[in-house]
Amino acid sequence: MDGKPGLRERKKRRTHAAISEAAITLFLEHGFNQVSVAQVAEAAEVSKRTLFAYFPAKEDLVVHRLADHETEMARVVRARPPRTAPLTALREHFLDGLRERDPITGLNDAPHVRKLHRMILDTPSLVARMERFKSGAERALAQALRETADVPELTARLAAVQIVAVHWALAQDNAERLAYGEPADERYAGAVADAEHAFALLRNGLRRLARER
Q1: Long-range CB contact pairs, 69-76, < 8 A, 24+
Q2: DSSP H stretches of helix in the chain
C-alpha cells in the first residue's frame, strides 16, 4: 500500500473541486444572491442532488474554502514547541500569517481574495455561516487547551472564546480595509501593531480595563 487515494476518492475530489470552482467563479462574477444552486450545478456539470451531497447548503460553497482553518489554532497549540505558552505560539503564528499575507489574517489583497472577502462581508447569510465556523474554532481550541495545557474545562472554554474572538476581529479589520481598496503593504505595519496590542491584552488578562474611573 502506497497510501495514495483510490480511483473513487480521486474522482470525488475532482468533483468537489469542480463544483467549488464553478460556484466561486459565478458568485464573484454575478453576486452570491444572484446565482442559484441550479446554475452552479449546471456550470459544474452535476445534478443538484450531487451538489448537495458535497455541499449541504449554498453558503457552504463559499465557507468550505476556510474549512481547514477551523481547527488551525488548535493545531498550533498542539504542535507548539516544549515550554512555549499556547498564547505565545498563537501570537507568533498570527504574525507569521501577516508576514506571509495569509488570507485567513485578512491581509491579502490579491484581486480574487479581495472580492471574496467583500462578498462575504456584504452577504448576511455568509456572515451568519461564518459564525458557525467561529464556534467550531472555539470548540477545537478549547479541547486542545484542555489536553495540552492542563487547565480546567471552564478556563479552556473561556480562553478559547477570547482568543478566537481576537483573531476574528483582527482578520475582519484587515479584510474590510483591503476589500475596499487599502493595499496590503500599506496596512501591514498597522495590522502588526493591532495584533501586538490585542495579544498583549489577552496576555495581561485585560487588566487595563480595571483602571479606576
Answers
A1: 69/104, 69/137, 70/133, 70/136, 70/137, 70/140, 71/136, 71/137, 71/140, 72/104, 72/137, 73/137, 73/140, 73/141, 73/144, 73/163, 73/164, 73/167, 74/137, 74/140, 74/141, 74/143, 74/144, 75/144
A2: 7-30, 37-44, 48-54, 60-63, 72-78, 86-99, 111-121, 124-149, 153-179, 184-203
d(CA 213, CA 201): 19
What pTM value is reported for the model? 0.83
Give the pLDDT band of residue 213 (cuts 50, 70, 90): very low
Q: Please tell me what DSSP assigns to residue 104.
A: G
* 181 vs 107, more confident: 107
Torsion of CA 37, 43, 49, 50, to 10 degrees: -130
Residue 132 has pLDDT above 90, yes or no: no
Percent above pLDDT 90 for the chain: 69
Residue 193, C-alpha cell as written in the block: 501593531
User: 184 Cβ partners below 8 Å, 6+ apart?
Assistant: 101, 107, 108, 109, 178
pLDDT tens-digit readout, 59-80: 999 988 777 788 999 999 999 9
Confidence (pLDDT) at 2? 56
Give residue 66's region: left, alpha or beta (phi > 0; psi -120 to 50): alpha
